[in-house]
Amino acid sequence: MPIPLDEFEKLPTDQEREHQKEKEKDKISQFIESLKDPSNILIGCSVFAKAEPRDQTYVLCMNLSLKPDPKSKLYAIESLIREWNKKSFYRFRPKQLNKISPDIQSFLRQEGGRIGSLESKTLGHLDLSDIQLVSEVYWELSEYDSIGQTGASKALHMMIPRLFVMWDDNIATAYHRLHESHKVQEALCYQQFMRTCNEVAAAVLSKTSEEELTTKHPNFKSTGFRKTLAKMLDECNYAEFTLKKEKVKSK
Prior knowledge:
The protein is mostly helical. The protein has 13 helices and no strands.
């Protein structure tokens, strides 16, 4: 059934839609540029810390993952993915929960060498070949049905927390608006995302050290836990693109 003429006339024109799209892209670009100021990183992290109680799970899982035995690290990775993705991913795929650890083990058997080659890399000091490899291992892990794209970013961050930046659907969609020549959350999308994060991190590290920044983080003040710059960027992105969207939905 066609919509009434008066409602049809209120629909935006192609030109108006394109203008709105450009405004949204400019806003995202401005936000990303603002993250190059260390003080804005800390503001975003403070917003995240106040709004997200699940961060306690992250701290517990990270501490567990630092233990030398592989089982602890595997349990930590699975626990983090279960907690953070239970509403958006596993709610629709409950049968995949029992496959998380076996699939991560399978991934590590196949890609352990390439993961090992990345362990010395840190965000802010990556070259193009590093970022290419990062996107490749991300895509390999995301192909497992029990993991998916957002789960892959989280699992890889747990493996190398100073390198991989996590994302969720909202963050991925926002950054994707700046490079829409490919599908959202595919390998090239994460590559572009990591390239942007690396540029931001390099700018931040030209003004302060990761050590100084982490000791000013709210978590360090309350628990003594040291967050990496990669995690702090994730918190800023989450505060900007996920928390704000959730607030709009709740109104």
